[in-house]
Structure formats: structure tokens, C-alpha cells
Design goal:
- The protein is of the alpha/beta class.
- The chain is built from twelve helices and seven strands.
- It has a four-stranded parallel sheet with strand order 2-1-3-7.
- The longest helix has 26 residues.
- The radius of gyration is 24 Å and the shape is globular.
């Protein structure tokens, strides 16, 4: 039997191709609708869905006009910090209390060694005065997992400190939107996220690692508002931090700052894993409790945020966001109120109010 093959017409070929692309677009839009718009860093880089890990608890609204950033020469307080401070959410509570706050990122201190790991200049006090800072108080903020690197070497190689203007950041979301077709997650992301959702539903293991994010089994339904609250997402750097052993460098920096009339306040933000899993749990290196070590030196002004945040995370739902390694808006505002209260104690010449 002879089979005759006829060439496909250009019109028919175009319709087949168009149908294929339309089908792919429908699938992608359907996945976007199901998975929801991405909000969290951990869901985005770890390929986990907002449907499973997106927060659902109501968050407070911060008026945009409170996101102020003053020049160094006008500031009462300077904050040097990382992504927990540069959005200036917690500083809005200081602004409400009439304080003028300037905020800088670590990489504005001068020589940047590795992104997010910039060391402290060895003459920070003199450098800040030369840059124009006339205020009395300096908040040195760092996430726990980066603090050892930032303190292990007081950098003698740095450029003059130049503060850059920080544009007004969009206020944190008070609620999550159901869908945004203008910002698709992407089909490749969706397929990986779908695979992870299936694995989490079937697996009996205690954790699933995806890229640089770990989903760890945890009885978190009283602490988090996301649907899949039997797992908590963590960035794997929480478990790779070096043992803190640079207290002498902290003391040297503290002395250098006090010599020029600047009172440093050391604010170490606990890793998400430290708060929900416990100090040093699953850590690759021996764990040193930074806050307990600071407490041994009366000259260091530093709140024990390890203890404070652990307590508050049990009463404020989504204290750390379930889809992100950062604090929720409600937690930032609690932290801002705490810092404002303690700063006013310092201004009233109360000795070390944090201890």
C-alpha cells in the first residue's frame, strides 16, 4: 500500500505553531494563578510556592512619609546595617519619636571585600567624624550569620566614607495580592516549584533542600500563617556560619568610637534558624552565642535579641516571614518600638539600658 505524504501548507503550519504557543501561554498563566505572585526571597530562589509558604496574617501599614533618611550632618543617630535596616522599616518608629536617623549599608564604609560581608574600618570613629557625622549614637546592625566575617578583620584598607542618598522605598505590603499577570514567575520556575510541592507532599524526610533554601519539618502552625506550616523555609547560610571569636575586635571598635564621642549600640539580628530551631541547631561549626559573650563586657551596649526575638516569635505570628529570611512588618515595628524606648533611656544617661 502506497502512503502519500503531502507537505503541510504554510497556513496550516502557522496555525499549529500559534496553537502551540497559545497553549504554552495558557499553561504559564494557569501556573501563575495557582502559585500566586512571588513575594519572599526564600520562595523565589528556592522554588517554593507562595500558595504553600506565603504569609496570610494581617500586617500593619507604615505611612510612606515616615521612611525618612537624614544627611550625616543632621542626624542624631546613624544606623550602619544590612538588608534588615536599609529598607528603614524599624527606623520609622524612631522618626515618630522625633529622632533624626541616617542609614547606611555596610558597603558604604569603603573597601568592599565580598558582597554583604564588608569588614569594619579600624578607625571608624575618625572616619565618621570626617564624613560629617555630628551625632552621639551609632547603631551597628548585622545579621548573625555575617557578623563574624565583618568583625574578624578590622580593615586598614578603605576609602573615605561617603553616604549616598537612599531613595524612598515602597512601604511593606500590608496584604498579599492573589495574582499579578504583569509579573510572571516564569514556566521554568513554576515547573521546579511544582516538583518541590509534590516532593513535600510525598516525602517522609525531615527536610528538603532546593538551591540555597532548606524546607525543614517543624510544628509551626501556631507560629506561622502559611498553608504548609508543617515546614519552615531557611536559607542554608544559617547553618554555615563561622564560630564567633572576634570579641577583641568588637572591643577595639567600641573603644575607637567612644574616643570621638560616639556611643555604639551593637544590634545583632538572630538568624531565622536560631529563633525557630534553637541556637546552633544543624550548624556546621561549633556555635558561640554572640549575645551571651557581649553581656560579659559592661562597656558594650547591646540588646540580647536572641532571647527577645525567641520570646516574641511565640506571641507574634509570622515574626519572621514564612517565605523570607527577614522580619515581618509587625516584627519590624515591634523592634523599632523597642529600640526607640532604649535609645531614650540612653539619652537620659541611664547606664546600659539593654542589660
Amino acid at each position: 500500500m502506497n502512503i502519500h505524504l503531502y507537505p503541510v501548507s504554510f497556513k496550516k503550519y502557522s496555525l499549529i505553531l500559534l496553537s502551540f504557543f497559545l497553549f504554552a501561554i495558557v499553561i504559564e498563566l494557569g501556573m501563575e494563578f495557582y502559585f500566586e505572585k512571588l513575594y519572599g526571597d526564600l520562595t523565589r530562589v528556592g522554588y517554593f510556592t507562595e500558595r504553600d509558604f506565603g504569609w496570610r496574617s494581617p500586617q500593619q501599614v507604615i505611612p510612606p512619609e515616615l521612611f525618612k533618611d537624614y544627611p550625616l550632618a543632621e542626624a542624631d543617630i546613624l544606623v550602619i546595617g544590612d538588608s534588615f535596616s536599609t529598607p528603614r522599616a524599624w527606623q520609622t518608629r524612631l522618626v515618630v519619636d522625633g529622632l533624626k536617623v541616617a542609614t547606611m549599608h555596610w558597603n558604604e564604609l569603603g573597601k568592599s571585600v565580598i558582597a554583604n560581608h564588608e569588614p569594619l574600618p579600624d578607625n571608624l570613629g575618625e572616619a565618621l567624624r570626617a564624613a560629617g557625622f555630628k551625632g552621639r549614637y551609632l547603631v551597628i546592625e548585622s545579621i548573625e550569620r555575617y557578623f563574624q566575617f565583618r568583625m574578624e578583620t578590622l580593615s586598614k584598607e578603605h576609602n573615605p566614607i561617603v553616604k549616598h542618598d537612599i531613595g524612598i522605598d515602597a512601604a511593606p505590603f500590608a496584604k498579599r495580592e492573589r495574582i499579578s499577570l504583569s509579573k510572571l514567575n516564569g514556566a521554568n520556575w513554576g515547573l521546579k516549584a511544582l516538583s518541590n510541592s509534590i516532593k513535600l507532599s510525598l516525602m517522609s524526610n525531615k527536610y528538603l533542600k532546593s538551591h540555597i533554601v532548606e524546607a525543614i519539618k517543624f510544628d509551626g502552625c501556631q507560629l506561622f500563617s502559611n498553608r504548609l506550616c508543617g515546614y519552615v523555609l531557611f536559607v542554608d547560610e544559617d547553618f554555615k556560619k563561622e564560630t564567633f571569636n572576634s570579641i577583641n575586635n568588637v572591643l577595639a571598635a567600641n573603644k575607637n568610637l567612644q574616643a570621638v564621642g560616639i556611643q555604639p549600640i551593637w544590634v545583632i539580628i538572630p538568624d531565622k534558624a536560631s529563633i525557630y530551631l534553637g541556637y546552633g541547631e544543624h550548624n556546621q561549626h561549633p556555635y558561640q552565642n554572640i549575645w551571651q559573650q557581649f553581656a560579659q563586657y559592661p562597656e558594650l551596649v547591646a540588646p540580647d535579641l536572641g532571647t527577645i526575638f525567641t520570646e516574641k516569635s511565640r506571641t507574634i505570628k509570622d515574626f519572621y516571614m514564612p517565605d523570607d529570611p527577614h522580619l515581618s512588618t509587625n516584627a519590624y515595628l515591634y523592634f523599632g518600638d523597642f529600640m526607640s524606648k532604649e535609645l531614650h533611656k540612653l539619652q537620659a544617661n541611664q547606664p546600659n539600658p539593654f542589660q
